[in-house]
Amino acid sequence: MKKVFAIGNIMMKDDGIAIHIVRNLTTYLEEQGYQVFLGETDFNYCLRNIENNDFLLIIDAVYQGSNPGTVSSWELSKIITTRQKSISAHHQGLLNNLHCKQVKGHFIGIEIGEVDFGLELSSVIQGRYEDILKEVVEIISCVK
Question: Which CATH entry fits the domain spanning 2-142: 3.40.50.1450, 3.40.50.80, 2.40.110.10, 3.40.50.740?
Answer without folding.
Answer: 3.40.50.1450
